[in-house]
Design brief:
There is one protein chain. The protein is of the alpha/beta class. It has three domains: about 80 residues; about 90 residues, Translation factors (Elongation Factor Tu (Ef-tu), domain 3, Beta Barrel); about 130 residues, Rossmann fold (3-Layer(aba) Sandwich). The chain has a six-stranded antiparallel beta sheet, with no helix packed on it. The protein has a six-stranded parallel beta sheet with strand order 10-9-8-7-11-12, with helices on both faces. Strand 11, helix 8 and strand 12 form a beta-alpha-beta unit. Helix 2 packs antiparallel against helix 3. The chain is globular and about 75 Å long.
Length: about 350
């Protein structure tokens, strides 16, 4: 939307007066127009590299650094354009607005890039253990060093960094898989998917770790209800497992339904613990495997609209629904839930792959 509005600005100038088309000639145009064009190009680059990062094969860390550089350039060039045009700041009120806006923006930049990293470095964690959770999936157990740790709601996430440089851009977001009852010790369950996660299983106990969090609204504690339906695909089970563990520790007896889909049995995480949780919770579990072993007694195949409709509880009134997994599965589940008359306010999603 921002990009569309910015492009509409010069387009309207040309429509109102064709002579303004000369402002688009970077060789002969005045500097105010050059700054505007450069700022627009920076904004266009931000959008393109964000939407098509994977297609362009830009590593995540490089994209984050490029994103920050382009954002600074975009705003700086836009402010220069506004100053040189003049009539945007030709009254005291306009002048105050355009002084306060960049000052606030610069303050936010200093906070996120300088002050906050220094504060995070003062609250380190140590990697207590690394355990294999499933095929290509690892449990990381952390405990705070010299402080009381952080508090989180089950289902939230944090940015995790192993970078020893104070101002590195190697933080990665991961959902907590542990419940809140075991704090200050906590765990993340991470699947090897490339970039940072490809070597996660080789980390040594004692490694220093830094956390920024917690973040996110994907938690049953924010949405009181008579019961909950959890729909997970693959490693999307991690924030849901955090909620199930917390519910069990609290002795919660509300009705719960879990639909857990995975490619095969080897990629299924927490299955034994989930089975045990059915004894402590009013929990009904349905496993769905695309490739099932001989004798598999639960659902087999891809989770599709027909299967989902059959597995959902008949009485959906008052339930809230939590969905986490691959984008394709989440798109289908969200559409189907809305098609069953479940309002937006009762469907909560957590996507691991926004960029």
């Amino acid at each position: 939307m921002a990009l569309a509005l910015v492009i509409l600005h010069p387009a309207l100038l040309v429509v109102l007066d064709l002579s303004n088309a000369a402002l688009l000639n970077v060789i002969s145009a005045p500097w105010r127009a050059r700054f505007a064009l450069a700022s627009t190009v920076a904004l266009l680059a931000i959008v393109m590299t964000s939407v098509w990062r994977k297609g362009l094969r830009i590593p995540y860390e490089h994209w984050r650094r490029l994103h920050a550089i382009l954002a600074v350039a975009m705003v700086g060039l836009a402010i220069a354009h506004i100053e040189l045009v003049g009539h945007y700041v030709n009254t005291p009120l306009k002048r105050v607005i355009w002084i306060v806006y960049p000052a606030l923006w610069l303050g936010l930049l200093v906070w996120t890039q300088v002050v906050k990293p220094l504060l995070i470095r003062r609250r380190p964690y140590v990697l207590q253990n690394v355990m294999r959770a499933a095929e290509g999936t690892w449990d990381l157990i952390l405990r705070p060093v010299g402080h009381s740790g952080l508090r989180f709601r089950p289902g939230q996430f944090a940015w995790l960094s192993l970078d020893r440089r104070p101002f590195g851009h190697r933080e990665h977001p991961f959902s907590f898989s542990s419940g809140t009852a075991g704090l200050p010790e906590m765990s993340f369950t991470i699947r090897e998917r490339g970039d940072f996660t490809s070597g996660i299983g080789a980390l040594e106990p004692g490694t220093r770790v830094f956390l920024d969090g917690p973040y996110g609204h994907f938690s049953y504690t924010r949405h009181p209800a008579v019961g909950y339906v959890f729909i997970a695909g693959g490693i999307g089970i991690t924030p849901i497992m955090s909620m199930l563990r917390t519910l069990a520790a609290a002795g919660d007896r509300r009705p719960l339904h879990l639909i857990y889909a995975a490619r095969d049995e080897g990629r299924m995480v927490f299955r034994e613990e989930i089975d045990r949780l059915t004894e402590r919770l009013s929990l009904e579990v349905t496993y769905v495997l695309r490739v099932a072993p001989p004798g598999w007694e639960s659902e087999q195949g891809r989770l599709d609209p027909g299967m989902l409709a059959r597995l959902l509880p008949e009485d959906k009134c008052g339930y809230h629904f939590f969905v986490c997994g691959p984008d394709e599965m989440m798109d289908m589940v969200e559409d189907e839930l809305l098609g069953h008359g479940i309002g937006f306010g009762r469907v909560h999603s957590e996507r691991f792959d926004l960029v």
